[in-house]
Amino acid sequence: MGRVEDKVVLVTGAARGQGRRHAVRLAEEGADVILFDICGDIEHNSYPLATEDDLQEACREVEKAGHRVVSAAVDVRDRAALQDALAAAVAELGKLDVVVANAGICPLGDGQPIGAFANAFDVDFLGVVNTVHTALQHLTAGASVITVGSVAGLLAEKAGPGGAMGPQGTGGAGYNLAKQFIDKYTMALAGQLAPLSIRANVIHPTNVNTPMLHNEQMYKMFRPDLEHPGLDDAILTFPMMQGMPIPFVEPEDISNAVCYLASDESRYVTGVQLKVDAGASLKF
């Protein structure tokens, strides 16, 4: 315990899923946490996103760990809103040590309008850039920037359009491109921040057991032979993604990586592409 004692951490997309688990784990390890989430749905995204109630529940879970929490309903696409909300949070908590740019959507499905591509790219890439660039003015030596990419996005880049791991529909293409850009952006950012003794690393998860994975459009990507596949159908083919014979990893598996990169255990680790993928990148 206490691996991030006395640090202040910003987590985006924090109301549920991976983001909430990261926030709670970091609080359990000693951090005060700033939680941002849009708390509303986004056009063309077929599954519902987190709500205000979800964000409040995440705050309660952080408080149970005995640490301070500040939250705000913020769209990561809106840099001005991010700047205002983060300035207020830092003023309350006193500083900012770690940024976890986690917020993302995955609007899959055939026949989507071009807006699905734009929304996926704007949330998944521009949202990361907005979050990090807004936070930079508050970071000092010893700080850590953690972005969240996707092994699926990297594999889609290798496979090319129409490849085995290629996107499903317009929104999927936007998602994959955004995740590829996050990887390149984080590596470039790490080079710029290293002289300031600020670290930047990207985590690339495989399938994670969250609402982003558990919806009909995602199931259909794994079971295109069925018109309305459910979990029982998709879980038979989920393991095809990984080298290890598992359907998905748990949010806690990603939180372990986040906690390591947020802590001083990784004080000289920067410019790393940390794949938590059960061997997916090896398999493909």
UniProtKB/TrEMBL annotation:
Cross-referenced InterPro entries, in alphabetical order? NAD(P)-bd_dom_sf, SDR_fam, SDR_subfam_1
Q: EC?
A: 1.1.1.-, 1.1.1.275
- CDD domains in alphabetical order: SDR_c (cd05233)
Going by the UniProt record, its keywords in alphabetical order are: NAD, Oxidoreductase
Q: Which Gene3D superfamilies match?
A: NAD(P)-binding Rossmann-like Domain
Q: Does the keyword Cell inner membrane apply?
A: no
- Read off the SUPFAM superfamilies from this record: NAD(P)-binding Rossmann-fold domains (SSF51735)
GO molecular function list: (+)-trans-carveol dehydrogenase activity; oxidoreductase activity, acting on NAD(P)H, oxygen as acceptor
Q: A Pfam family matched by this chain, by name?
A: adh_short_C2
Q: Sorted alphabetically, which PANTHER family does this protein's record hold?
A: BENZIL REDUCTASE (PTHR43008), CHAIN DEHYDROGENASE, PUTATIVE (AFU_ORTHOLOGUE AFUA_4G08710)-RELATED (PTHR43008:SF4)
Annotated family:
Belongs to the short-chain dehydrogenases/reductases (SDR) family.
User: What's the name of the protein?
Assistant: Carveol dehydrogenase
